[in-house]
Design goal:
The structure holds two protein chains of two kinds. Chain A is built from 18 helices and twelve strands. By secondary structure, chain A is of the alpha/beta class. In chain A, β3 and β4 form a beta hairpin. Chain B has helices at residues 22-28, 80-95, 111-119, 155-163, 195-199, 262-266, 293-306, 321-332, 366-371, 378-386, 419-424, 464-474; strands spanning 5-9, 12-16, 52-55, 62-63, 74-76, 136-138, 143-146, 169-172, 179-182, 205-207, 220-225, 234-240, 243-249, 281-284, 287-290, 311-316, 337-341, 348-349, 357-358, 390-394, 410-414, 427-430, 439-442, 448-451. In chain B, the strands form seven sheets. Chain B has a seven-stranded mixed β-sheet with strand order 15-14-22-21-20-16-17, with helices on both faces. The relative contact order of chain B is 0.10. The chains are: A alpha/beta, B alpha+beta.
Chain lengths: 433, 481
């Protein structure tokens, strides 16, 4: 839904139902809207029963990787011999993505309820919500909501009326993109430098403080109460294309569209309808040129490719990209693709944690080459060099930041090679693709 | 115990203990997988990505340092894909590396040089840009950080954090701006911090003491044992032109793992001292007169023949067990006894390694001396010595004036000429220091460890064990030697 908060008829409004409704931010307002009923229900269920419902719903991680949530929860040891932890990844920093921010701004209790259910399902007595440092407004709203939840006994000494202590803490990031990578986030929570860890061990075996940990995205956890309330079958039925992709998904659309904003669609929805119907199409007199459908880390699509893409995990892969975090960056024919690719690469060069050689040196070198091309000083060899560097930066490192830098470079060159060549041969950008 | 794991590395069948990394398994198969961040004495970081290998059935290249072996695993170290990845890492590491090898102390023993030579590209594709520049930083009493050469393997950071357990180093900044930082209120002055210089695979952390002193390929290396304390750390004495220029650790998992303390590392200068005894001397009235070994040993025979019992030995706990045994045997046959004394300092343990410390007793062979029958009761023995028939002193009072021995005749075997010896000794016999002889030391756990000759002794100096054996032979005393 764009702004003001009015949903488009083609949206499937679940998570975004109360966006713009200030009263829904309070615990009482939330309860009035059916909030915390799912938690009540969950408390009457066993851990396995909850996990089974989530598994059956087909819910997959909304942070980018799309890992089945129920399956992830089921990896947690059944017997709680050591402390179990829940981490909620609210370090939403992927360029083009701003959906978790909206969930926290308007429906903080949806997230808290989801956290409470998840804590119950994985046997965690402590949970952390790691919020991006720059999210000042969501932070204050979440703080207020958490205080209310403590006051209502949802967390605290006798959490959820079970006589067991369950604590939830908010943790504010300090501005590093890499802390959104799950293991870097855990290092950061532990007070260490936010460097991704080598996996295995996976978080369910040794995560936060070396203990079994489940880490979920904000949107994933916020969807859980709806699934428990309305049932796995209902959620599973929200599917327009591939049955492996179920439920609704918030798409953050930005760039050259008439109405940018967050739009909630059922998975399998055509990207073309999102771009034209909901977002109102291109600005007057312009044409779409390229779309990055899943946040800056995924390969770029041409407008023609985008118009044939179905928005679910499989549909995006079939189009040669990924659903990612659903940060949809739309670019029209005024866009200089070489500059855009350089700008994206510069982001990754700035944010590389510097652990792995390929990423530390490769991202920065990539930017230098792109800047050279932009300055009209490139050569045709640079294109091969960029592709070769991208190849060596893909699948070689601890985390995928380096791959994320390579993806737009490779797809940018592949799909808009003419623009690169124009800079190289005539030292200027093409007027229109 | 679990069964060993069988796997194939580059066509070779290897059998290793479960939990072994592919990199270590390859070592056992005789193949060194190039690597930078991995070090067997440090926790695995897996960050340099140099040790990438192809493992059949794995979807992508794996870091062999961080991948444990699995039964039936088939590893290809030299597959085209793995080689390309390593070549690429080398290219990335070199784009900001200054290539100031001609003035770098690490040249010749630099792992970046070695692996680039082994499998790097013949030229860079990063030619048009200036390299990143950071100034040299002073990290502590003996350590400089040359940031430009740093490849951010983080071995130094992990050593300080996980082995020394004094986390003063860190990685600061991100991306290609990253460098090794030091907590701004701290210095790299831990008792064991010098190890970061050895651990650094390139010339980024260098020793001020060794700065621009020698090219690595001009150094002769001799296996030795640290003379600094009773721990008995295994060391390598690096010499050039008959000078010890550097001391480095020699791995021994039973004693010092891969490390030595800074006291041992920097305390080698006395091995090079120039004010040495170089010729045997006999007393003629007030003067000591230089003579050859035949006359000196003949004088030794005269003195011993005329000396009444008991004989007393005052020895250095830094002498070889062989010399100490000879000295002990010599005095024992004449109803004598002997003693040593040892300087003490504070004990400085290396937290991350069990039973490894710079020990309080700052001499290598305290336990060899005890084994030979020498006593720690210096004062009592000195008292006996004043009324004895003969004192045989072995390299004692090296730097001091010496003790009062009354009018007892003295034969001195030593490396220098202390005042008491110059005034009072009947016979002075020059001996080699530990770098100039072969011998053994017994450490505090009873471990007898050999050390070898690294340089020649000055002038006519001979190993103390040889001198004492000759004296015993002249005196008609049977010793064990």
């Amino acid at each position: 839904m764009g702004y003001p908060h009015k949903s488009h008829p083609k949206e499937t409004v679940v998570l975004s139902q109360y966006f713009g409704d200030a009263e829904a931010r309070t615990v009482d307002g939330w309860k009035k809207r059916g909030g915390y009923a799912a938690l009540e229900k969950a408390l009457g269920m066993s851990r396995d029963q909850i996990i089974d419902v989530v598994k059956a719903s087909g819910l997959r991680g909304r942070g980018g990787a799309g890992f089945p949530t129920g399956l992830k929860w089921s990896f947690m040891p059944k017997e709680v011999k050591k402390p179990h932890y829940l981490c909620c990844n609210a370090d939403e920093s992927e360029p083009g993505t701003f959906k978790d921010r909206e969930i926290m701004r308007w429906t903080p209790h949806a997230l808290l309820e989801g956290c409470a259910i998840a804590c119950h399902a994985i046997g965690a007595e402590v949970g952390y919500i790691y919020i991006r440092g720059e999210f000042t407004e969501p932070w204050t709203i979440m703080e207020k909501a958490l205080a209310e939840a403590y006051a209502k006994g949802i967390f605290g000494a006798h959490a959820m009326g079970k006589g067991k202590r369950v604590d939830l803490y908010l943790h504010r990031g300090a501005g590093a993109y890499i802390c959104g990578e799950e293991t870097a986030l855990m290092n950061s929570l532990e007070g260490k430098r936010g460097n991704p860890r080598i996996k295995p061990p996976f978080p369910a075996a040794a995560g936060l403080f070396g203990m079994p940990t489940t880490i979920n995205n904000v949107e994933t956890l916020a969807a859980v109460p709806h699934i428990l309330n309305r049932g796995a079958e209902w959620y599973k039925s929200l599917c327009l294309s591939n049955p492996k992709s179920t439920g609704t998904k918030l798409f953050s659309v930005c760039g050259h569209v008439q109405k940018p904003g967050n739009y909630e669609i059922t998975l399998g929805f055509p990207l073309k309808d999102l771009m034209y119907d909901m977002c109102g199409g291109p600005l007057p007199g312009r044409k779409f040129k390229a779309v990055i459908p899943g946040g800056s880390s995924v390969p770029i699509l041409t407008a023609a490719e985008a118009e044939g893409t179905l928005l679910d995990y499989e549909g995006c892969v079939a189009a040669g990209t990924m659903l990612g975090s659903a940060g949809c960056i739309v670019m029209d024919d005024t866009t200089d693709m070489v500059y855009q690719v350089m700008r994206l690469a510069a982001f990754y060069a700035h944010e590389s944690c510097a652990q792995c050689t390929q990423c530390r040196e490769g991202t920065a070198w990539t930017v230098k080459i792109l800047q050279r091309i932009l300055a009209g000083e490139g050569s045709m060899k640079d294109i091969d060099l960029l592709l070769d560097l991208a190849d060596q930066m893909t699948g070689k490192t601890i985390c995928v930041l380096s791959d994320s830098c390579a993806a737009p470079v490779v797809s940018g060159i592949k799909k808009f090679k003419g623009e690169f060549e124009a800079y190289i041969t005539s030292g200027r950008k093409v007027a229109s693709a | 115990m679990a069964d060993n794991v069988k796997l194939t590395i580059d066509g070779r069948e290897v059998e290793v203990a479960p939990g072994t990394s592919v990199l270590e398994a390859a070592k056992l198969a005789g193949v060194l997988i190039p690597h930078y961040c991995y070090h067997p004495g440090l926790p695995v970081a897996g960050v340099c990505r140099m040790c990438l290998v192809e493992i059949e059935k794995a979807p992508k290249l794996q870091a062999s340092c961080a991948t444990p072996v699995a039964p039936g695993m088939v590893v290809h170290i030299d597959s085209a894909q793995a080689k390309a990845a390593r070549q690429s890492v080398l290219e990335f590491l070199l784009i900001n590396h200054p290539l100031d090898c001609p003035i770098c102390d690490q040249a010749g023993e630099c792992e970046l040089q070695d692996f680039v030579f082994q499998e790097g590209r013949s030229s860079t594709r990063y030619s048009e840009y200036a390299k990143r520049y950071n100034p040299v930083e002073d990290f502590g009493p003996d350590i400089l950080y040359v940031a430009n050469r740093c490849i951010l393997c983080t071995r130094c950071v992990r050593f300080m954090e996980d082995v020394a357990e004094e986390a003063v180093l860190n990685v600061s900044e991100r991306g290609d701006r990253a460098y090794i930082g030091i907590v701004d209120t701290e210095q790299l002055d831990h008792a064991w911090s010098g190890n970061v210089v050895d651990l650094c695979p390139v010339g980024a952390l260098i020793s001020k003491d060794f700065l621009h002193k020698a090219r690595a390929w001009d150094l002769d290396k001799t296996a030795s044992v640290c003379p600094g304390c009773t721990q008995g750390c295994n060391i390598m004495l690096d010499t050039r032109d008959n000078q010890v220029l550097r001391v480095r650790p020699r791995p021994n998992m039973d004693v010092n793992h891969y490390f030595i303390c800074d006291t041992g590392r920097l305390g080698y200068q006395w091995l090079n001292r120039a004010d040495r005894l170089e010729v045997p001397m006999i007393r003629e009235g007030d003067k000591l007169v230089p003579v050859d070994w035949d006359r000196a040993l003949a004088r030794a025979a005269e003195i011993t023949a005329g000396a009444r019992d008991p004989w007393v030995a005052l020895v250095s706990a830094g002498a070889s067990s062989e010399a100490l045994e000879q000295a002990a045997a010599l005095v024992k046959t004449r109803g004598g006894s002997g003693a040593f004394r040892v300087t003490e300092g504070t004990e400085e343990p290396l937290a991350g390694v069990e039973d490894l410390a710079l020990r309080k007793e700052r001499a290598a062979n305290v336990y060899g001396a005890l084994e030979a029958g020498f006593s720690r009761d210096w004062d009592q023995t000195l008292h006996t010595a004043r009324n004895a028939g003969l004192v045989i002193a072995l390299d004692e009072w090296r730097d001091g004036p010496g003790d009062d021995l009354g009018s007892t005749p003295m034969i001195y075997v030593g490396t220098t000429l202390p005042e008491v010896v110059r005034k009072r000794a009947q016979l002075v016999l020059p001996c080699a220091n530990m770098a100039e002889e072969e011998g053994t030391f017994r450490n505090l756990r009873g471990r007898v460890q050999p050390y070898f000759q690294a340089k020649t002794a000055p002038g006519m100096a001979r190993p103390a064990a040889w001198i004492l054996q000759q004296m015993a032979a002249e005196a008609g005393v049977r010793t064990t030697g």
